[in-house]
Amino acid sequence: MTLTRTMQTNMRKPEAKPADEPALSLQEQANLLNVTRDAIFVMDMEGVIKYWNLGAEERYGWTAEQAVGRVVYDLLKTVFPAPLEQIKAEVVGTSRWEGELVHTKKDGTQVVVASRWSLQRDKQGAPVAILETNNDITGRKRAEAALRETERKYQELVEHANSIILHWQRDGRIIHLNEFGQRFFGYTESEIRGRHVIGTIVPETESRGRDLHTLMDEICANPSAFEQNVNENMRRNGERVWIAWTNKVLLNPMGEVTEILSIGVDITARKRAEQALRRSEAYLAEAQRLTHTGSWAWNPATRQSLYWSDEMFRIFGLNPQEGVPPTETFWQRIHPEDLDRTRELLLGAAAGNMEYEHDHRIVLPDGTVKHIHAIGHPVLDENGKVAEYVGTAVDVTERKRAEEALHESETRFRTFVDHAADALFILDFEQGTVVDVNRSACESLGYTRQELIGMTPMAFDVNLGQPALESFAERTAAGETVIDTHWHRRKDGSLFPVEVHTSQYWYGGRRFLLKLARDISDRLRAEEQRQRLHQLEADLAHINRVSMMGELTASIAHEVNQPLSGVVSNGGACLRWLAGDAPNVEEAREAARRIVRDGKRAGEVIARVRALVKRAATPSEKLDLNEIIREVLALVGDEAKRKSVNIRTQFADDLLPISGDRVQLQQVMLNLVMNAIEAMSSVEERPRELLITTRNIDADQILVTVKDSGPGIDPNTLDKIFDPFYTTKPGGMGMGLSISRSILLAHGGRLWAAAKDGPGTIFHFSLPKYHDEESNAAA
Amino acid sequence: MRQPEAVIAIVDDDLSVREGLETLIRSAGWRVETFASAQEFLARPRAEAPSCLILDLQLPGLSGLDLQKRMAELELEIPIVFLTGHGNIPASVQAMKAGAVEFLTKPFDEQDLLRAIEEALERDRRTRRRYAEMRELQGRYESLTAREQEVMQQVVSGLLNKQVAAELKISEVTVKVHRGQVMRKMRADSLADLVRMGDRLGIRSGKTS
């Protein structure tokens, strides 16, 4: 049973729930609507009037009988602000519409009404009718128009005023800024309206630190106290401006402040001028303090001071609060030793209307002595009489002390410089002449200081020509200290070697060259001696090598001769045993056996000697030939310089390493270079040039070329030059090239001479590249 | 003209050289003795000296030249043929001055060596003959009586019979008899012959010598 009812309930069609509120009858509702004076009417969706209240009858002059059943828009000749269909769509969509409509009354007059539409729906929710209420706003509209006109006039006044006019709310929001204000601050009306004054035209804080937030709050809290105020404002571009404001408070009917009207005048320029003046006064005081300069004015007629600057008081140890001191006090401060002279000079100058400049000392009560540099200057009145003296008093105590210290330090430095062992020359960079020298320079060259100053260094520096001087200038300008060996000439003409350090410095806007010259005669002598010893050693080593070869040869000869003698003897004997009628075969066989044995023995000796030689000549150091050549060139550098030979090198950066005996290969290079230098000693008509190049021939060997500009080699003797004991040199042993060739052969290389276009000789030698295994280096 | 009895001594420290020389010299028909060092050679029994010494210049210990000097001190007069590994002029000059027969450089020519040996043997023969003659002469001289030796000394010094008589304080006739005995015993053909013998014996009267 229960089940059947439930099913019946569920099977029923859904229905809108009846309204809970007690429903009023339509008549009741209409009566209610008649109570109000507003015009209220109901129309169906086609605009046909269904209901027309009393308010509507009064407003439009049509009775309900006349109106109901008519289309409302026709009846009232309604003017819509938008197309009717659009308004209807809005009503259907949102159930309401509001707007101003113009209706025409029965008598033909038009009224402006504020109209409110409300949609009525049936129980199914479908739109059935529209309730429209109208308020007549024609009067209000008219008043508004009149107000607008007044406002416009004021507006014009405000906008065209040459002042900033700001209308703002208590909470700081801007209601209006006049056009002048907009131009001044750089905002448009729409940009500024509604924004807070802080952060737009008022900065958070003034440049000098005043918190403007607080100021704004104070103005709002107590506007009467701020009828006038000056504060810093801010333009849109961040520029700070000073504005004098007049503030007028607007109160609401309850007497509360709601809005503020402020009128501002830009006083930035005036403000700046004031600041500049204050600043310049401060600067002057600061300048006086920094330079210890006091200034004063003095009346010669009364013989009393008119004005003392703060610094003047400070210098004289007086208190500015006590006022300008009487002249007596001034005299009391003058140092007793300087008093008479100072008084005489000052009074004398005053009597003669003269300017004066004078140094004197003052003594402070605590005994402090100060040095004063005083200047006085008469100021004439319109009649040409001295109105007053103005002047300065500079405390130069510090400067005096510094000058004394400088003088002392200069003296000390001069002493150092004069006692230095090195000769010191200071040259004027542009003139190239000596500006100053020390004692050592005078002593070493035998000139006096007066003679040397103004001299060109070329007069005593043998190696210094104009080009060399220019090169110095260029190199030292780059900050380099140029170190070189030169020869200096004494006044008596004698020469001595010096090591010169040249550098450049600026002083007082001028450029100078500083040259330090050290006599290196002793060092050179020692160097020469060392070189002679070195040469001797090399010669001895050379002779040793030659004699060792002789000994080796003798030893080899002896060792081989023994078994060879055996062979010869046994051979002879063998023949003898076999000769004659009855040959002794047994003896002959024995002799023959010994021949074989001794022959083998001789062979063994040779093999042993070879092994020995091979071991002795085993060179397997990994070497960079460029480096070896550089070492040799360092050794012969002075020799080449002495013989005026210019050595140039063209080294392959990627030169293959080779293996060999460093000393032997250096000997080869030394031989070739020394030969070349010697060969060029006779050359006078062309530059003596030695060019050494290294390069890789291929992936396995390198080539060294030594090219000189000497007289060259006669092609007929070209093949003989490598023979032992062949020489073209008067003192030569004729072993250099022979040994060099042997050394290179032992290193697996080759040495040869080549013909050259033009004068000179070219020697080439090749060497195989470095291998780990020793066998590759053997001959 | 070979002397089969001649012995050739070889001193060389090198076996090849030593054996080569030995067989070569033997093939030439001589007897050979070999020594590896100078000391070994000096230690050899001295009953019969070899006729020729083939000596290496460069020997360990006593060198060739040292041995030559030593032999001179010992009055071992054996002709020496020097051998050397390489030409050494000062050494060869010294060797030749000290009486070496030849100075050969190894490897030497077979004929040069054999010729040098021949010459050494010839020199040895002469030496030996001289020694034999000297010994004969001394035997004859020793066979003279004391008085006869006195007379011979006076005579070879060139004194006349009369002078000898006065010197020895005997009669001239007695001198003549002694002189006849001397001539006979010394087997002198003439006075000149006797004087030569006196020279070789080194006997002259104390007055003149």
Description:
- The complex is a heterodimer of chains A (779) and B (209).
- With 779 residues, chain A is an alpha+beta fold.
- Chain A has 23 helices and 27 strands.
- In chain A, a hairpin with a 5-residue loop joins strand 4 and strand 5 (127-136).
- In chain A, helix 19 (521-578) runs antiparallel to helix 20 and helix 21 (625-642) packs parallel to helix 22.
- In chain A, 24% of the residues are buried.
- In chain B, helix 6 crosses helix 8, helix 6 (146-156) packs across helix 9 and helix 7 packs across helix 8.
- With 209 residues, chain B is α/β, with parallel strands linked by helices.
- Chain B is 55% helix and 11% strand.
- Chain A binds chain B through residues 554, 557-558, 561-570, 572-574, 576-577, 584, 587, 590-591, 594, 597-598, 601, and chain B through 14-17, 19-21, 23-24, 26-28, 58, 83, 85-86, 106-108, 110, 113.
**Which CATH class of the largest domain in chain A is shown?**
Alpha Beta
Summarize model confidence as the mean pLDDT of chain B: 85
What's the count of strands of chain A? 27
Q: What would you call the quaternary organization? A: heterodimer
Biggest sheet strand order of chain A reads 2-1-5-4-3
End-to-end separation of chain B: 42 Å
Most extensive chain-chain interface? A-B, 26 and 21 residues
- State the CATH architecture of the largest domain in chain A: 2-Layer Sandwich
Strand content of chain A: 25-35%
**Strand percentage of chain B, roughly?**
5-15%
**What sequence of helices (H) and strands (E) makes up the elements of chain B?**
EHEHEHEHEHHHHH
Produce the secondary structure layout.
The complex is a heterodimer of chains A (779) and B (209).
Chain A: H1 2-11, H2 26-35, E1 39-44, E2 49-52, H3 54-60, H4 64-67, H5 72-76, H6 84-94, E3 96-104, E4 110-121, E5 127-136, H7 138-160, E6 164-169, E7 174-177, H8 179-185, H9 189-192, H10 212-221, E8 228-234, E9 240-251, E10 257-266, H11 268-290, E11 293-299, E12 304-308, H12 310-316, H13 327-333, H14 336-351, E13 356-363, E14 369-380, E15 386-395, H15 397-419, E16 423-428, E17 434-437, H16 439-445, H17 449-452, H18 466-477, E18 482-489, E19 495-507, E20 510-519, H19 521-578, H20 585-616, E21 621-623, H21 625-642, E22 646-650, E23 658-660, H22 662-680, E24 689-696, E25 701-708, H23 736-746, E26 750-754, E27 762-768
Chain B: E1 7-11, H1 15-27, E2 31-35, H2 38-42, E3 52-56, H3 64-73, E4 80-84, H4 89-97, E5 102-105, H5 110-143, H6 146-156, H7 161-168, H8 172-185, H9 191-201
Parallel strand pairs in B: 1-2, 1-3, 3-4, 4-5
Helix pairs in contact in B: 6-8, 6-9, 7-8
